[in-house]
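sry for the spam today, last one i promise. struct tokens for design, 376 residues
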């Protein structure tokens, strides 16, 4: 069976974990955590990056920094993972969904302004498949209405919008290093902070409400509880695992991109025949080959394709169930405007295997079976 995903592994992960253990520093903010933070800062140009225990927690931290309060409203797409909404629901906010664009599966930037009320406090664009939302328009709306922008860039590391790294355009950006992502630490994430006057507050909240980070930098003689907070620090062993991949980020990305390009070129014929739709990448965006998907005619055809591939030892999967259709969605959110594309497009989308180390002959086999399904 060709797996849908295999977590990345470069060969140095165990060695680095052993180094962390030997240094007797396996809790949060050890040497490898600092290396990962610095790598993200240098790669993206963000003033501050802080590893977290998950992208979920990075988004929760961003919601706290944005001072989201009960009764506030936050605008986002319904076609996203539950964590995008959870971070704000936990703060007592109402999530307001708007429809997506069918070409990129991202939030439709032209529908955001109509969803704004006097309770709106933030916009949360989700960069689906590592392809950027139209951030110029979103930032223009945010400025007009004095709204915070929190980028859900869970899938967006190594991707850019008009030359800017995803996660660095809004006020806050959130990365994921879950095992399904391009670079992994098992469970983990990072928050990227653009406003320097928010860095100390982020450090305090992340470190249980204490000023421990300043203590370790030698800025104070002792640390104490100074504000409300939680524990968002991952183990340095997890960071050690991640750092082995960040060192080879370009190689891993190139490997994934080669697979993505093979798929894209091979399925052009099917698209020209009107049998499937391929991913669309706007000219001003560079993506990271996080996923490759096809859009089938409808839900029935997608189910048949997934079953056919499984019969041929290929694991392909569908993706998100729109959040507004979920029980919690009915309780904590509302959909503004018409659901013209969110549900319909989500039911057509199928994701093909794509991971670091997927062999060329395996990709060719997958391509052959997809074509066999449509051209038989």
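last one done:
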């Amino acid at each position: 069976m060709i797996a849908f995903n295999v977590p990345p592994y470069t060969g140095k992960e165990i060695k680095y974990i052993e180094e962390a253990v030997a240094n007797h520093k396996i809790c949060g903010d050890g040497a490898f955590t600092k290396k990962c933070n610095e790598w993200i800062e240098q790669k993206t140009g963000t003033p501050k990056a802080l590893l977290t225990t998950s992208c979920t927690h990075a988004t929760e931290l961003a919601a706290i920094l944005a001072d989201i309060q009960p009764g506030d409203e936050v605008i986002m797409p319904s076609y996203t993972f539950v964590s995008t909404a959870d971070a704000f629901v936990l703060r007592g906010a109402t999530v307001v969904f708007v429809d997506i664009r069918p070409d990129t599966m991202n939030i439709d930037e032209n529908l955001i302004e109509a969803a704004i009320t006097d309770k709106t406090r933030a916009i949360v664009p989700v960069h689906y498949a590592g392809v950027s939302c139209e951030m110029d328009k979103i930032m223009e709306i945010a400025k007009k209405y004095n709204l915070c922008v929190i980028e859900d860039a869970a899938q967006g590391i190594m991707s850019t919008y008009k030359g800017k790294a995803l996660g660095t355009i809004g006020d806050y950006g959130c990365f994921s290093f879950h095992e399904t992502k391009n670079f992994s630490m098992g469970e983990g994430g990072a928050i990227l902070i653009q406003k320097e006057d928010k860095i100390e507050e982020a450090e305090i909240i992340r470190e249980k409400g204490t000023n421990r980070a300043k203590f370790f930098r030698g800025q104070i003689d002792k640390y104490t509880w100074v504000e409300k907070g939680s524990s968002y620090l991952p183990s340095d062993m997890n960071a050690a695992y991640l750092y082995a991949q960040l060192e080879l980020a370009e190689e891993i990305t190139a490997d994934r991109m080669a697979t993505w390009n093979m798929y894209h070129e091979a399925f052009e014929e099917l698209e020209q025949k009107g049998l499937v739709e391929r991913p669309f990448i706007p000219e001003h965006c560079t993506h990271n080959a996080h996923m490759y998907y096809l859009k089938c005619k409808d839900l029935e055809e997608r189910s048949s394709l997934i079953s056919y591939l499984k019969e041929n030892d290929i694991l392909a999967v569908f993706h998100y169930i729109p959040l507004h259709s979920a029980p919690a969605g009915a309780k904590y959110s509302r959909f503004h405007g018409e659901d013209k594309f969110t549900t319909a497009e989500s039911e057509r989308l199928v994701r093909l295997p794509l991971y670091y180390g997927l062999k060329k002959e395996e990709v060719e086999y997958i391509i052959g079976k997809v074509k066999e399904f449509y051209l038989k």
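The longest strand covers residues 48-52. ok im logging off now
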